[in-house]
């Protein structure tokens, strides 16, 4: 599934947070979005997923929805958004309930999702009994249960420990290899972006504009290999530089304010 | 892999379709005219039904007749006389009941023991019909104003207790733990966390108790009241003067509307953080 | 009449409902029902119990009851003035020697000189409601002793328990209350009975009424009902209203049986019922002058429409008056 | 820099003091005996006051007398007769009022237009006193059961509307956005998000409306009721039989207690996620 | 201020999350705590700060409270815990309100905190108008406003972008240099631990036990220098290894469950 964003602008009351964003995601592409805190990354994601109405501009998708996909464009939320009154397994079941699935498949999807996230033991627990990282993992299991054609990820790993994050990134990559899910991946972690993304979109400080679009030439499969390190280091350096410039400008503006 | 800028073959792809907007709804928008229109429609239907003879004027006098009765009350000054008498009773009774109820409700919301004792006591005492207790009120408080304050006050007290207590339950516990971790004294936690966190529920309770206070003014003015909207309504009912009766009821409705509007303003003011 | 009696057993009974208060003043209706006088007339009469006199004419107006028997209030005349109800026969009346409503003075007021009904002028008196029978009784007491209701302070307290509470609490000087309550207050030592309304101001306390529409559309039904009612009235009168030469009440034929019927219907103890049985006219004749006086009184109080013609509230053709 | 294990000079430091526990409180613990103790104390004080002549037995008969009257009602079967009549009325009236109120409350909580129309209408109609309207209720609904259902139903309807509507306001909006993003149909969002999210507020509303229904059974049974706890209380009042009157009131209290207990159980059951 | 934890055990109902923890923090020491998601890190912090009552064991502090310190042991929460009904500046003001401070100092502390976090522009905003990262920065500003003697930080930077995180770490280091604040720093980011901590405590998977205590020998000031990189890399390798072992064991357990 492809995503086309053109000339997108968004304002909350009179605070402009996104200004003239143009983006195109190819089938199966993973685009990482980085940018200073508060620049409008979550807002962009919300617009792409159709739950925030943009002030101006258009956002379109194109392409076929694969078999078994129940919700083509699917979110993984920064604030988890779990139902506090449902157990872990029922939180996952929620997004399958309104689809006519055979009971066995429904069960199978839930179990696969929870086992994959290491939450099977906790399937009967309520959200209040989970740690922050565990809650995020429920959110991921829930999103994967609908077999999305396009994932919108809002800092999905920020609440996780380094090791779990590592394992989950492996899982994501596995998923992408299998399903070719297109993804818009908001993160503030350059390592994640360098590990997962095909391209990295650097947003400027608010109002968010596309500061630069950086393509990572090295194919994802080979990025762990020693030969790739030089290129990755260069990209990292570049991203770092761009971000630093933004942050400093923000700092200067704030000092003036 | 596509280039980084929008000049991209896909942009002109034929099959591209806009992402369907799935959000929206479940927010409060204001429609200031809708209510006026609704009231106007209601009046029109009511008057129409009367004109067409669908409702006997004895059973449901038309708004014009009720309006005439109300106008009569205005011109002979009895409206103001009755209103003045009732407003004082409602205000004092409501304030007393609300203060007491919030005090007890806070205690029950905060202390487990108070709750363990309070919940069953409230369950047992709330359903006691005030009409049955009026003789006791007369004995204890006389037939003057105190017994009227008591009637309204008790009626307001119990719903306030329940609303306050359940509003406190809905204050997020992590905020309280945060405040404790900063060493905020207990009173500050109450004032700065529990009270504002419980405010939405308490205000919803006010909506209920304000109306109850208006209803109970009738019960209160059963106790030898010479003037008052309640006494007026009772007398009209006893004399089967339905137009006057409805005029009195209309006054109560308008008071309810006024209080409701004030509460809506308060909510918009105090709960803009939601 | 003979035709009706002949038909009665063969035909299915005609249904009718009557709204009553669970008080001994409705005794004749209870008797007519219990002893089958309605059935004899071919009627299946259903009793609807109410707790306040105001509701009975309303139920007749709304068509929930075909007939009603209860005390006459300003509210009744207001309904009558709108053409909703018409008096067709008498119910009980206040008569000398029949203690129904007592004037009771509090101990303090009695000691301060409130010893007879004439002294009530200028005092605070607890009554049920404005426009009630008690209100009128004070009105006619004033007519007798030369004061108006403006000269007393009537404290409307809606019902007996509140009146008693205000009385006991010394909030009023006197109370005008049903005999049971009056006697209880006197027995408690809380007050002194200074007179009975029946002795001071005999008047037409209650009436049997129906909707004009019923008279128009179902005249035979009304006739049958009244016949049964009058049979019961006569029996009641004979049992309870007889006096000996000294003027004291004596038990008439069927006293115990009828008393049991009334006690059952009112869910009260027979001895309590016996103490407050009102006088009824055996032919159901109405004190027409008093009814006219009532209407005029309410009109002067501004509580009944001035345009109401007192004669128009009655249709006495059924009792031949 | 210290070593990694607890064998550390500081552990034996003289000045070390425990970290003061600052959390705790603001949670619900159960004290099953507290309520019983409170009721026992209350009864003792009441009986004592009567025995010592502090309260007039005519207006506040001692609990023993009330108990005797209650026992009398049990043995002569009148308790069951009256209770049966009232229970039906309360149940039907409450259910009707609650269903209607929740329907309207949901509509008002969800649709801005419904709210714009509904809030002022509720403010205007809620304060209409049912006692004053009894004559009109008879005219409109007759003297049978419908007018009794209407009296209780209307009394329950308005508080339910308010409680439901404000409970819906307190459902976190991010959960609704989440559900929308997963394409949940509108009805599923209502059933799976809005309804359970609003449940705490709705249950608190039930506590209020259940008691209101019990109170209103007295008003309802003012209208031509032969049997019923309300009619019983009214009749006892008219005959100045205070002990019987209080026995009737006690029955209402016990019903309130029973309903309150059921609601507490429900809350523990349904709201264990908080 | 020094912290002494001895033989600490904690259970939620019948789930044991911490088991026999012994810890000692020296004056001015920064101890990083890492461990798998759900192993009890937040719980440990809660106990150290006195807002969770431990099932068993003792937790003590010792040492002088510096001048101007209003709340010796202060939290920075994982879930921000901002009052939704207060503006940004009033959220910070909250923790000063019950102290008898001159109005000028109060104002000065609030302003310094907000400017330091780049939130001065947003001082009148409500939490609902902030992005996740901005909310966390309010939480940090609030904690610093009381000039704590000991900070308990629960993944304080996890919601922030890389660059802001970098700047904030600099700020923290500056603070520590100045104030010698003792800190217990829960994180899932090895880089943060390596940059800030004196020692790193590795917790095992639930029930959390101290798996190992790793001391970083290189002084904090010199860690950016090239000469330090070898040692840091070695420590990193070691931590990584420990975490991986824990995660794998957890994985195996889950698979068996
Ligand atoms: N509902 C809202 N009303 C008003 N302003 C808002 C609202 N939501 C977000 N904003 C503002 O929009 C800006 C962008 O918010 P957004 O959540 O998109 O940022 P972000 O890039 O995701 O930040 P972070 O990395 O911290 O999550 C912020 O400055 C915030 O103040
Ligand atoms: N209030 C509670 N009731 C019951 N169990 C709880 C509660 N809070 C936490 N737990 C359980 O305790 C364990 C540890 O929780 P804690 O929040 O301390 O983990 P954590 O190490 O901070 O995890 P993370 O890195 O994901 O934030 C988790 O398994 C969780 O399920
Ligand atoms: Mg964001
Ligand atoms: Mg945690």
Strand content of chain B: under 5%
Structural class designation of chain A: alpha/beta
Helical proportion of chain A, percent range:
25-40%
Helical amount among residues of chain B, as a percent range?
Answer: over 70%
Description of the structure:
The complex is a heteropentamer, with two copies of chain A (257 residues), two copies of chain B (274 residues) and one copy of chain C (321 residues). Chain A has 257 residues and is of the alpha/beta class. Chain A has seven helices and nine strands. Chain A has helices spanning 41-48, 88-94, 103-116, 132-145, 162-179, 190-196, 229-256, and strands at residues 2-12, 15-25, 30-34, 56-62, 73-76, 150-154, 182-186, 199-203, 210-215. In chain A, strands 5-6-7-3-8-9 form a six-stranded mixed β-sheet, with helices on both faces. In chain A, strands 2-1-4 form a three-stranded antiparallel β-sheet, with helices on one face. In chain A, helix 2 crosses helix 3 and helix 3 packs antiparallel against helix 4 (132-145). The mean pLDDT of chain A is 87. By secondary structure, chain B is mainly α. Chain B has a single domain (63-270), classed as Orthogonal Bundle (MetI-like fold), CATH 1.10.3720.10. Helices cover 73% and strands 1% of the residues of chain B. Chain B has ten helices and one strand. Chain B has helices at 32-51, 63-75, 78-110, 112-125, 130-141, 145-169, 173-181, 186-220, 229-238, 242-270, and one strand spanning 17-18. In chain B, helix 3 crosses helix 6 (145-169), helix 6 crosses helix 8 and helix 8 packs antiparallel against helix 10 (242-270). The longest helix of chain B has 35 residues, at 186-220. Chain C has 321 residues and is of the alpha/beta class. Chain C has 15 helices and twelve strands. In chain C, helix 2 crosses helix 12 (219-240) and helix 2 crosses helix 13. The longest helix of chain C is centred in the last third of the chain and has 22 residues, at 219-240. Chain C is globular. Chain C binds chain D through residues 19, 22, 48-52, 54-55, 58-59, 61-65, 159-161, 164-165, 168, 180-181, 184, 188, 267-268, and chain D through 56, 58-59, 134-135, 138-140, 142-144, 221-226, 231, 234-235, 237-240, 242, 245. The structure holds adenosine-5'-triphosphate (ATP) (2 copies) and magnesium ion (2 copies).
């Amino acid at each position: 599934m492809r995503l086309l964003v053109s000339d997108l602008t968004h304002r909350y009351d009179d605070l402009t947070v996104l200004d003239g964003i143009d983006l195109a995601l190819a089938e199966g592409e993973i685009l990482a979005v980085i940018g200073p805190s508060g620049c409008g990354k979550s807002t962009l994601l919300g617009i792409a997923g159709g739950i925030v109405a943009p002030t101006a501009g258009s956002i379109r998708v194109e392409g076929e929805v694969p078999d078994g996909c129940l919700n083509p464009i699917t979110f993984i939320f920064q604030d988890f958004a779990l139902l506090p009154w449902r157990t872990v397994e029922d939180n996952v079941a929620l997004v399958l309930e309104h689809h006519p699935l055979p009971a066995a498949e429904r069960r199978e999807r839930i179990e696969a999702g929870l086992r994959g996230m290491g939450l099977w033991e906790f399937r009967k627990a309520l959200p209040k009994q989970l740690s922050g990282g565990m809650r995020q993992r429920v959110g991921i299991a829930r999103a994967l249960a609908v077999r999305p054609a396009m994932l919108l990820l809002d800092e999905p790993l920020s609440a996780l420990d380094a090791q779990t994050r590592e394992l989950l990134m492996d899982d994501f990559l596995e998923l992408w290899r299998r399903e070719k899910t297109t993804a818009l991946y908001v993160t503030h972690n350059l390592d994640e972006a360098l590990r997962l993304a095909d391209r990295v979109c650097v947003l400027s400080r608010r109002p968010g504009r596309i500061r630069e679009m950086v393509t990572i030439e090295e194919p994802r499969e080979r990025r762990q290999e020693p030969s790739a390190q030089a290129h990755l280091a260069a990209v990292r350096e570049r991203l770092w530089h761009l971000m630093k410039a933004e942050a400093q400008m923000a700092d200067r503006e704030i000092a003036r304010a | 892999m596509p280039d980084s800028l929008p000049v991209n073959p896909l942009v002109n792809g034929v099959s591209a379709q806009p992402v369907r907007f799935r959000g929206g709804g479940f927010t409060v928008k204001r429609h200031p005219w809708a209510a006026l229109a609704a009231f106007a429609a209601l009046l029109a239907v009511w008057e129409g039904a009367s004109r067409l003879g669908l409702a006997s004027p004895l059973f449901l006098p038309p708004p014009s007749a009720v309006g005439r009765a109300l106008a009569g009350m205005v011109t002979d000054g009895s409206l103001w006389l009755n209103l003045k008498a009732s407003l004082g009773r409602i205000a004092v009774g409501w304030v007393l009941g609300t203060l007491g109820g919030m005090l007890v409700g806070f205690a029950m919301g905060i202390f487990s023991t108070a709750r363990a004792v309070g919940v069953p006591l409230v369950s047992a005492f709330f359903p006691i019909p005030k009409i049955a207790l009026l003789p006791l009120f007369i004995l204890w408080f006389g037939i003057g104003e105190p017994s009227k304050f008591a009637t309204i006050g008790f009626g307001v007290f119990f719903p306030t207790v329940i609303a306050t207590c359940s509003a406190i339950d809905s204050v997020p516990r992590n905020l309280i733990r945060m405040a404790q971790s900063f060493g905020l004294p207990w009173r500050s936690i109450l004032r700065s966390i529990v009270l504002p966190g419980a405010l939405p529920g308490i205000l919803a309770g006010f909506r209920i108790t304000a109306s109850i206070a208006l209803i109970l003014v009738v019960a209160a003015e059963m106790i030898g009241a010479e003037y008052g909207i309640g006494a007026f309504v009772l007398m009209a009912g006893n004399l089967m003067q339905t137009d006057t009766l409805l005029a009195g009821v209309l006054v109560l409705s308008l008071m309810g509307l006024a209080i409701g509007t004030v509460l809506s303003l308060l909510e918009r003011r105090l709960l803009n953080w939601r | 009449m003979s035709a009706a009696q002949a038909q009665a057993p063969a035909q299915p009974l005609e249904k009718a409902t009557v709204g009553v208060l669970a008080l001994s003043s409705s005794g004749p209706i209870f008797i007519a029902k219990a002893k089958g006088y309605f059935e004899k007339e071919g009627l299946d009469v259903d009793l609807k119990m109410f707790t306040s006199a105001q509701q009975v004419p309303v139920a007749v107006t709304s068509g929930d009851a075909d007939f009603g028997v209860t005390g006459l209030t300003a509210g009744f005349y207001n309904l009558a003035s709108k053409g909703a109800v018409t008096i067709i026969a008498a119910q009980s009346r206040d008569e000398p020697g029949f203690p129904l409503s007592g004037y009771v003075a509090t101990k303090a007021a009695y000691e301060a000189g409130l010893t007879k009904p004439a002294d009530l002028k200028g005092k605070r008196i607890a009554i049920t409601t404005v426009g009630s029978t008690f209100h009128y009784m004070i009105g006619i007491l004033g007519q007798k002793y030369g004061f108006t209701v403006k000269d007393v302070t009537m404290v409307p307290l809606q019902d007996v328990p509140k009146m008693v509470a205000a009385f006991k609490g010394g909030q009023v000087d006197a109370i005008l209350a049903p005999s049971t309550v009056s006697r209880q207050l006197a027995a408690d030592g809380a007050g002194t009975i200074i007179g009975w309304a029946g002795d001071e101001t005999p008047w037409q306390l209650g009436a049997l009424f129906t909707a004009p529409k019923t008279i128009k559309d179902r005249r035979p039904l009304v006739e049958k009902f009244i016949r049964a009612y009058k049979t019961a009235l006569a029996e009641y009168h004979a049992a309870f209203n007889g006096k000996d030469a000294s003027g004291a009440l004596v038990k008439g034929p069927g006293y115990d049986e009828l008393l049991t019927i009334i006690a059952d219907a009112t869910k009260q103890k027979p001895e309590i019922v016996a103490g407050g049985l009102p006088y009824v006219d055996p032919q159901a004749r109405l004190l027409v002058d008093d009814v006219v006086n009532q209407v005029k009184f309410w009109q002067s109080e501004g509580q009944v429409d001035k345009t109401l013609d007192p004669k128009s509230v009655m249709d006495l053709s059924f009792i031949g008056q």
